[in-house]
Amino acid sequence: MTKSYLYRKILIIEDDEIFLKPLVKFLTTNQFQVNIANNALTGIDLQDNIKFDIIITDLRMEGMSGAEAITKISAKYPDSKIIVVSGFVKEDEEFKQIKNNTQVCAVYEKPVDFNELLDKIKESL
Prior knowledge:
By secondary structure, this protein is of the alpha/beta class. The protein has helices spanning 17-29, 40-49, 66-76, 93-98, 114-124; strands at 9-13, 33-37, 54-57, 82-86, 104-109. A five-stranded parallel β-sheet has the order 2-1-3-4-5. The two termini are 18 Å apart.
């Protein structure tokens, strides 16, 4: 019998629609409830209203960066589990600020293998 993730909630903070659409489809196909925030401020607002099991965030976005969002979410919700998926991991100065954050479960560079990401999500729950 396989474990059901039907009631597990994932927040994706991502402004890249090309990456976002297939990821949402993949996660919903795997029985997760997925909410989307197209920017970091919206993501923080959603986390304030809904308790997510996992937060997946990009680093570089318009307005507030993903690194700033991670810092704010971690301060308010120390039990948060966060996965970073970004195209700029190796060169991003802001990544250096959050790489030792204990709420960050994993960091992936785009393009990410969705099955590998799924394994990390399941492991983190």
